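To assess whether ligand presence alters the predicted conformation, the chain was also submitted together with calcium ion. Input:
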Amino acid sequence: MKRREFLKVAGAGAAATAIAAPAIAQSAPELKWRLTSSFPKSLDTIFGAAETFAKAVAEATDNKFQIQVFAAGEIVPGLQAADAVSNATVEMCHTASYYYFGKDPTFAFGTAVPFGMNQRMVDAWNYFGGGIDLMNEFYKKFNIIAFPAGNTGAQMGGWFRKEIKTVDDLKGLKMRIGGFAGRVMAKLGVVPQQLAGGDIYPALEKGTLDACEWVGPYDDEKLGFHKVAPFYYYPGWWEGGPMLHNMINIGKWNELPKSYQSIIQSASHVANTWMMAKYDAGNPAALKRLVAGGAKLQPFSQPILDASWKAAKEVYDETTKASADFKKVHDSYMAFRNDQYLWWSVTEYAFDSYMVRATRA
Ligand code: CA
């Protein structure tokens, strides 16, 4: 019997409601998901992006789709968040793709690569330059689909116990820096170290560590590095616009109604904007406090930047030869970057550089 005829026969309102209800329930089911963050609650901006995302999803679904956010270590350690998504321990995570550089260097392009793009450019590549699709084609190998969900903006070059005047000053320096950037630094003689956030301060204090990179003023201030390693360098050329991602298990994603898939993407946009704006709003005051508290703010010298650029190029050449996946994303990303800087060199750069001078005069 056709549905319309059945309704006509059934007639009464109660029966019609009984038939309609399952269809409504299916398009907006009650769902509870778990999201594991790669970050501790104390990093309220980067951790807060996941909470902001989950709140936006709950509000848009009248609380039917609830995503509970767990801090790093509550379900799995921060650096295993993507693994927990791959094997469906959790439905999704909020993480930095480059943490998984050791599995495959292609992961680096999801977050940031040395001398890569700034935050605006990274957004443009992801949303309009094919970045999201290229990365999702790669993430598929790990049962993951991912969407941009936050950015720190250009990071600082980190904290050094001693002044770094020449390229030679980097030789033998034990620095907390990981992944792709660590590989580039190693070419300059730096000895890269992997340390969790809480272990950095005591190592700098004891002198078993000479330098560290973290994020920027707002987060760095909380860890107090300026008290033990006062030379605060910029820019963090390995992280010009590091992007965070919501990574979702593909099987779980495919089970979602289209409306929930759409809401997840919209709420990821919300987190992406929220996180960058919060860092931009908080960094100036934090920087002033750090300098007042003894931080010695210094730019990396031109020879150091040039040597780093050359070393990064060597690592890119080696890695594009070794990995077809890496090369595919690399070629798209770098062509996009070069065009972006062509455009940036005109009005964005001219405007910003004039404004820097004018507002400081
Ligand atoms: Ca960093």
